[in-house]
């Protein structure tokens, strides 16, 4: 019998093959000894039994955990960063591991705009193979550097005071020469490519396939945050110089990247072999606050239109994803979003600590869930309580994988000597 290429990786996939063939051997070659398999004195249909066994094997593989972070929103990314700091702190207390990081508990991270910066900070490999930033450090990064990343007017989501030279120095100091290949898990960060008039998705999986899709992390962060009204398009080139894009803000392409992350996982069978539908996912989607000031002018400004478009697009994605999950949305999909931020009351001179106070208050708001064909409803749990529940689910999956014979994910890794991609199950926990 020909050997499957996956068996050559040496990472335990042969255990799964052994288990499947053991079932076939026990059920078909040596007959049925289990009385539960008999119905009216006759054995069940072998195909039905095999289907049930394979379904049990699939269930044993667990769920793929996805983190998605919106673009700037009303709080300049601080709400999402505060949510992540809260989640990581709870994970540490609940697990008993003081060094737990967000990257330990998610298999995929997607982020747009400032959400992409957060994903890069939390999932780029640093010293000793650990993430370069904890969630609390990433929150402080946004607070301390808000003037470089914040809107230039209170109501404009995408108008950021982003001086290219200062941004380059900031991200160069933070990420050094790290590229997409140096992220710990699959990372997806969008921008809009003016040269093709289409969204462009920076993807770790693509980077491992060819240097033509590998970019330096500092440039990825600049690309997903580039404000076209201030700096115009930013030219980006891949590591091998073959791919060239003219990038502007990722929020223009997809302010809420949740759908892109789900699509990536469902179509990436090499890294997620058992994931066939949304029931095999656990998704945490983080918003960055919505303003309640609305559009009060008969003829709103371009900045107000951009804000409305960004918030509306995020809500549409939330609704669509909620509909896709259907009956499993309550257990498999969590959206953290908040309202009540009046941009007119918070001038651009407000410091990051002021916005962090706003984010803390937003976490105490009641959580809002999208309901199939019924819009949204407020539930009893607050956003912070919902995050605590998420932490519990993440820890359950984390602990389950420690004793499971079946790899939930098979994350591609880069060999430091050959720079060739290999498949590893080490990151599945």
Automatic annotation (TrEMBL):
BP GO annotations: lipid catabolic process
A GO molecular-function annotation: hydrolase activity
Cross-referenced CDD domains: Pat17_PNPLA8_PNPLA9_like
Keyword Cytoplasm belongs to the record: no
E.C. designation(s): 3.1.1.-
Entry keywords, A to Z: Hydrolase, Lipid degradation, Lipid metabolism
Recorded superkingdom: Eukaryota
Family: Belongs to the patatin family.
Record remark on domains: The nitrogen atoms of the two glycine residues in the GGXR motif define the oxyanion hole, and stabilize the oxyanion that forms during the nucleophilic attack by the catalytic serine during substrate cleavage.
Summary of the function given for this chain in its UniProt record: Lipolytic acyl hydrolase (LAH).
Name of protein: Patatin
